[in-house]
Amino acid sequence: MITKTSLLATRALVFLAEAEQGVVASPRSIAARLGESPAYMAKVLRSLVKAGILRAEHGRKGGVLLNRRSSDVTLLAIVEACQGAIAGSYCQDIDDLRITCAFHKAAVELRDSVVNALSRWTLEQLAASPRPTKRLPGDAHCMMVGFAVSIAPGGAGTRSRSQKRTRRR
Q1: Domain containing 133 — which CATH number?
Q2: What is the pTM of this model?
Q3: pLDDT at 146
């Protein structure tokens, strides 16, 4: 349902939301902190810039920074920036559901549920609790763990020992 690209975009945005306000981070530095490919990260960040979620700063010390308040960025906006509009999987766009097949009705209900859930979650909420509060049981791991907690003004991030251990797995 949520693609790897949307997940990476969310991780990058949480990383930027945790950064000091107004700090510009390069795609390469974000990719390094998240353990991802710099080329893939650049592609993901371009989608977020195009959607107006991020702002690109050009020049030698260029990079990206949040273009909106984190409370104004919904998970729906992030997913749609990366995947396109959430589309229903049904016959055709028919407003009168009374005349459609049962599958069409189920697909409309599913699409509406997904859009409603993604609309309720904001980047601010995600950044407020970006990691599990305890070690997860067994081999379970959180996809959000493993990136730096903060960006220093010079662009150097810090990572806790537990995050370093988690990332090595």
Answers
A1: 1.10.10.10
A2: 0.78
A3: 55
